[in-house]
Amino acid sequence: MKRTTIKDVAEKAGVSTAAVSYVLNGREGKVSEETLAKIHKAIEELNYIPDFSARSLASKRSSLIGVVIPQTENDKRLLLENPFYSDLICGIEAELRQHGYHVLISGVEKGQSYLDLTMQRNLDGAVIMGIYQESFYEELKKVDIPIVLIDSYINDDSFKKIRIDDELGGYLATKHLIEQGHTNIGLVTGMIRKDGVVEKRYLGYKKALSEANLFYDHDLVFEGQVSYEYGLEAGIEIAERHKHLTAVFATSDMMAYGVINGLRQGGLQVPDDISVMGFDDISLSDIFYPKLTTVHQDIKARGLAAARYLIDVLDGKQNLDSGVTLLPISIKERDTVRRIK
Amino acid sequence: MKRTTIKDVAEKAGVSTAAVSYVLNGREGKVSEETLAKIHKAIEELNYIPDFSARSLASKRSSLIGVVIPQTENDKRLLLENPFYSDLICGIEAELRQHGYHVLISGVEKGQSYLDLTMQRNLDGAVIMGIYQESFYEELKKVDIPIVLIDSYINDDSFKKIRIDDELGGYLATKHLIEQGHTNIGLVTGMIRKDGVVEKRYLGYKKALSEANLFYDHDLVFEGQVSYEYGLEAGIEIAERHKHLTAVFATSDMMAYGVINGLRQGGLQVPDDISVMGFDDISLSDIFYPKLTTVHQDIKARGLAAARYLIDVLDGKQNLDSGVTLLPISIKERDTVRRIK
DNA sequence: CACGACAAGTAAACCGTTTAACCAACATAA
DNA sequence: TTATGTTGGTTAAACGGTTTACTTGTCGTG
Q: Same structural domain for residues B106 and B220?
């Protein structure tokens, strides 16, 4: 069965294809009320559905937004099991769909470029989650579409960044623990890489310590993958070998859960024996028991902000912006941190 | 800067565009080793990246697979916060990407059709998660691409279904509780709709009860949204008004978590005061404390199977199959069910 | 009244690939 | 020898839109 095309519509309405195209694209002032009605009627009656491939070929606009999601190193699966990313996508997709855009998700192989995909598909914009090698960003700069970075602190004018103040977050979290009387505070964190989220949180931790005149002990920093599994490992080790700690700050909620379970395996109860503080306030943190005290950020709002930015730029309502949008954070007190005498 | 096209490649290699196209599409036996090498060289040197829009327009193939994710009814956000769906997507995306396909995710508005999107984007195939109105499937049948249903029990030859035996799962779960000595077993479940996953699990529950000569009491069936929130609500109510229950079977893990927390709010501890059984074994069930006893299914394998099927059909390695693939399930004993005397 | 400005619409080129149809040259079989 | 494939290639017409440049007709204005 042949596809209904713009030609059929034009014919039925007794106008040129150009006129139909104008209507489809909402060009103001190119068609009279009268022909507009005729065309709408024809579209309706023929049940016309435009072909985005053709549109994209002709116009270089695809109504397609790419979302890059970090993936595990070993198998190449998306890190979607971390609710932080699924929460983000929820916000992004909902907003984009309402504005006529569709979302193409994908991971990026280590060392691979995302440029290929943006060009192959004529992407209109992209949201990049996760942190990549420098070459990744260099490549990406070559393409001329609005791009939002979610996680990266890379200092490059080609990209919009939507962030929180991670250093402040790390600082507030640690300070909160200190205010509750803790002085031996361990840090469980991802790999501390320059210009990474994790590094900033780590710096915040150090700052709070030094401000309180507490000794920074590198042996209390447990550095590994940002994952539940590594948190578990660290928690077990802490329970076994670092019994003098009274609190642990984990730089992501998923790690904090790991830590809590690891501590429990090692015989320590949270918060009775030891306090744990998380970071992110993913949607599960209200569910998981004991309920996690953590640094709150509104993850869905962050997705929303990313989507809005892209939409506004693409609609011409906003100029390309290479700046940083900082979203607020706050300490969310729940049940895993206890004051000590 | 103008885009590098197949014409540039053809020119540089001194052949026709057709030859280049054949190479790009791996057509065997249309080009000699010699020209193949020339063309590859030209592609390499020019750093040529094909335009999928043009390809899709000309060939009706897009290398794009649509994945429909259920969304919440109130706001239109994807139900991605339910790890069941993110786990599925992990499996699907990884497999598809390795075979050169890309994944377009989207929700579908209530009452809307997915036909539009499949036609607009020339989708090569689709995976449908969630359950929709009949008209949704009717519409979808019109389009001539392989489609996999993940959740639906709809009996229609146009679709491939990849499932577990949900009734068996419900049966096994309930039987397990009965074997542990429970006789007053509540059911917390989603809306029981004909041909839905939830209904099958519910039927399994009833079957196990009647098989054990236990009385089925409709008052012990709590029917609401498949969500943590409703589980919470049900849990609270059970703790308040149904103290004689010794066990609850929740038809999804997320609901089970809600139930557990609701019970706790009502002063009941799991599993000491009451046992809880889940269904799905989402990746969090190993993390959440207490660890959930549940009906295990390999969710990622299910995603993988869906992706594989599409790939095989599209590669011509397999015929369209309107049958059902059943994946195995088993009872995963963890810490939320306790034997009673 | 002549002029330009504007509104409404059209014709046709173009976007980058695929692919059906065709062709030449050479090998093979009858 | 002639018909018959096969191999390796080309040409050019789609595919379904968008958009530039152009044509009309109408109106306001000096």
A: no
